[in-house]
């Protein structure tokens, strides 16, 4: 039987996404075997992250500074704000290097099942940002799901009074997608959003 | 245990990392839940969107178990409505109401057909009147149908303009005039057939009427409030009505 500390380590690792009790045991053994090179640096990194990481009061991003590096980056276009559901979506957009504006993280979607309403999302601060005359366009990058688009419509409605242009990401055929393998919903969305070439 | 049936997705709640617990309104097995392994994955998520029509196979060792669903997508109603704010709200509202009001595993084939008709109507003009009629049909299916055929006081079949909040029966303009503040308005399109024109105001009146009885009766004593999706639809349509 493993000792208390090892058992606790395994229990905590098993709570991570993608890990169950069996893989947590393997990860714990791996860490213990590499105490100097992995376990202690990991413990220090976790402690430093817990200490330093903050939620940006402007956009809801995670960073070690508040406001975050994206909000304070003067090379970014302050007139463009891309609204995403979660920080993971912000990271996905940043990986593309295709967007040079700023972001706003809602913190989820409206969800009847989970009992999440507008007051649980970071919408009031977005309305405040949209009222800034420097902001010219808000891009809604919520998921192409019923909850994601319902949230998008709600946000667009809330921003209507600000007079800012509100757009959303296109829906349709993904790069590398073959029509034969696409579901009918995606094909019909792509047909609706067709454009001249 | 195993059966195959057609069903509309009412909702999908994440379970663990990659599975979802899905609730469907099936034609022969009523509102039925089941586990979908991998249902939260990027590929499968689109299938389990509210309003989608699926051919599902349910398997479990015993009938009382939660069981597992596998499915083939027959019609993606959700995808066609993603750009339409109000019809999308109506879709969310209808699925949330069925989920909240219907008992589990009790067949309601008429309600299944009614939901199919509503979802088919949502992309077209006149969807809002279809939605209000569908809520009336939901009340009827649950045993709380309104009697809108004749006046509760005089028996007259003409000039029906109110509904009694106590009895759920229509009241004529003449008989209800003295109690008009206590009665619910009855929009004409609910009594005069589908050809009757609707306005944003009559739709808002219709939703107020059905919403009152849904909250009072259909959602049970513990859930007097309407689902948030239904409340958002009513608010949005009331805003259109001004």
Report on this structure.
The complex is a heterodimer of chains A (197) and B (242). Chain A is 43% helix and 11% strand. Chain A has 197 residues and is an alpha/beta fold. Chain A has helices spanning 4-13, 21-33, 35-52, 69-72, 87-96, 124-130, 146-159, 184-192, and strands at residues 54-55, 62-63, 80-84, 102-105, 137-140, 165-168. Chain A has a 4-stranded parallel sheet with strand order 4-3-5-6. A two-stranded antiparallel sheet of chain A has the order 1-2. Chain A folds into 2 domains: 4-52, Helicase, Ruva Protein, domain 3, CATH 1.10.8.420; 62-168, Dna Topoisomerase Vi A Subunit, Chain: A, domain 2 (3-Layer(aba) Sandwich), CATH 3.40.1360.10. Chain A is globular, with a radius of gyration of 21 Å. The model of chain A has no long low-confidence stretch (mean pLDDT 92). Chain A contains 8 helices and 6 strands; from the N terminus they run H-H-H-E-E-H-E-H-E-H-E-H-E-H. Chain B is α+β, with helices and mostly antiparallel strands and 242 residues long. Chain B has 2 domains: 2-76, OB fold (Dihydrolipoamide Acetyltransferase, E2P), CATH 2.40.50; 82-148 and 186-241, de novo design (two linked rop proteins). Chain B is 36% helix and 22% strand. Chain B is built from 7 helices and 8 strands. In chain B, the strands form 2 sheets. A 5-stranded antiparallel sheet of chain B has the order 3-2-1-4-5. In chain B, strand 1 (2-15) and strand 2 (19-26) form a beta hairpin. Chain B is elongated and about 60 Å long. The mean pLDDT of chain B is 91. Chain A binds chain B through residues 17-18, 110, 112-115, 117, 144-146, 149-150, 153-154, 156-157, 171, 183-186, 188-189, 192, and chain B through 11-13, 17, 45-47, 49-52, 73, 75-76, 78-80, 82-83, 85, 88-89, 91-92, 96, 99, 227-229, 232, 236.
Features of the shown structure:
heterodimer, A: 197 residues, alpha/beta, Helicase, Ruva Protein, domain 3, Dna Topoisomerase Vi A Subunit, Chain: A, domain 2, four-stranded parallel β-sheet, two-stranded antiparallel ribbon, 6 strands, B: 242 residues, alpha+beta, OB fold (Dihydrolipoamide Acetyltransferase, E2P), de novo design (two linked rop proteins), 2 domains, three-stranded antiparallel β-sheet, 7 helices, 8 strands, elongated
